[in-house]
Amino acid sequence: MNSLELSPPVFSILSSYIEEKVGITYSHRDKELLQDKLSSRAQEVGFASLLDYYYFLRYDLNGEKELTELTETLVVNETYFFREWPAIQSLVDNFIEPWCASGRRPRIWSAACATGEEPLSLAMLLDDRNLLDKVEIVATDISSRVLAKAQSGKFGKRAVRNIPAPHLFEKYLTANSDGHFQVKPDLCSKIKWEKKNLMTEIELMQLGSFDAILCRNVLIYFSDQVVRAVLDRLSRSLINDGILLVGVSESLLRYSGHFVGEEHGGAFIYRKVRNS
Ligand SMILES: C[S@@+](CC[C@H](N)C(=O)[O-])C[C@H]1O[C@@H](n2cnc3c(N)ncnc32)[C@H](O)[C@@H]1O
């Protein structure tokens, strides 16, 4: 299938619309990538012009439903077990464990969890320390497809490409005869999985407030302006002094305001500034 034409003005309106609704920002350098993705989807649903497809997305009664389908083709769901593991260990050692010891039941949110390896790795560590029942874990993503995969508990080899915690791997993952790995089912069921868009304030408010949020390796897909808006929302979802983890390549130092950076056991975490 040939790509449909994406003229500069149509690129501009379509990329702005996607940024507004999904957060993902496409610069002119990414034009070909966006053109390929849009063309495949638009042609699949019967459009011969990307301008017509834009009008459908924006103004048709079924436009929102179509945007959900398009979003599934735009998001990058790359993740794996024990990714950026020192930060998760630090979160448990320095925050979750002491919170539980003080009798509090912390609420932890894995925002943009993709296929679930991040919250499941956290759940493994907590279960291993007999803390899982003392913590609530909520895991969300904009994509229903990845959430369904997460809840199946079945993962391919790429999900276990890096094993810094072999005892957890042995304890919670079983190799199937078909080459897949199965997570202990009760681990999946202890996590509350929900579809949520980081761009939609009302959806996030429904989750209530959290002691810690992991929002890792998703801000890299957003413009500075979108990151600021998402940080505002995450800050509103955190208690005072609550903890935010972002990906190792996602420094927040240039976004002054809601968070201050702290180093704990070799990992960098952000703490919400009181009443910000
Ligand atoms: C690269 S994965 C990161 C997964 C995991 N947090 C990690 O660090 O391994 C990025 C995820 O962000 C999700 N995502 C992108 N835009 C989003 C949005 N506006 N709201 C919620 N999730 C979003 C994608 O669906 C994808 O699953």
Overall helicity: 40-55%
Give the C-alpha Rg: 20 Å
Bound molecules: S-adenosylmethionine
Query: Uncertain runs with pLDDT below 50, 5 residues or more?
Result: none
Q: How many H/I helical runs?
A: 11
Judging by the overall fold, what is the CATH architecture of the largest domain? 3-Layer(aba) Sandwich
Supply the number of structural domains: 2
Structure description:
The chain has 276 residues and is α/β, with parallel strands linked by helices. It has two domains: 8-74, no CATH class; 85-272, Vaccinia Virus protein VP39 (Rossmann fold). The chain contains eleven helices and ten strands. The strands form two sheets. Strands 6-2-1-7-8-10-9 form a seven-stranded mixed beta sheet, sandwiched between helices. It has a three-stranded antiparallel beta sheet with strand order 3-5-4. Strand 1, helix 6 and strand 2 form a beta-alpha-beta unit. Helix 2 (31-44) packs across helix 4 (63-74). The longest helix has 17 residues, at 85-101. The protein is globular. The relative contact order is 0.13. The model has no long low-confidence stretch (mean pLDDT 96). The site of S-adenosylmethionine has 24 residues, from loops. S-adenosylmethionine is lined by residues 22-24, 75-79, 83, 112-114, 118, 141-143, 146, 197-199, 216-218, 247.
